Amino acid sequence: MTVNKSSxxxxxxxxxxxxxxxxxxxxxxxxxxxxxxxxxxxxxxxLGDSAVAAIGATSALYAVIIYFASGLNSGYGIIISRxxxxxxxxxxxxxxxxxxxxxxxxxxxxxxIVLLSLRYYFRFLIHRKIFSMMHTVIYL
Length: 140
Known about the structure:
mainly alpha; elongated
């Protein structure tokens, strides 16, 4: 026996639905922030100031990539939401599959571009002392 625990967000109290939807997102964001804090503390304690500087130097690049992916997925979400609202299951499946394929392809392309251009990009922005460590952080 299967239990369907999905919720139709198109009916009912919208504030309650949005808050119930947002709470797990908030908790996930908090865990990500705690992870970043602990990562920086461990790197600073065990590897020194240069490691913390290398992590900080790469955070802007990570942020650009994450925000780009988030924007893409928000756009995909519009198409998926419309298909779900229309209760058009074939369109919904096609939209989700297309989203996953495009995300995979864009991830592969962005990864290749970043890894190939990393030395040239950061050569002008990063102090030589932390450059090799920053390069290692990105490749991890």
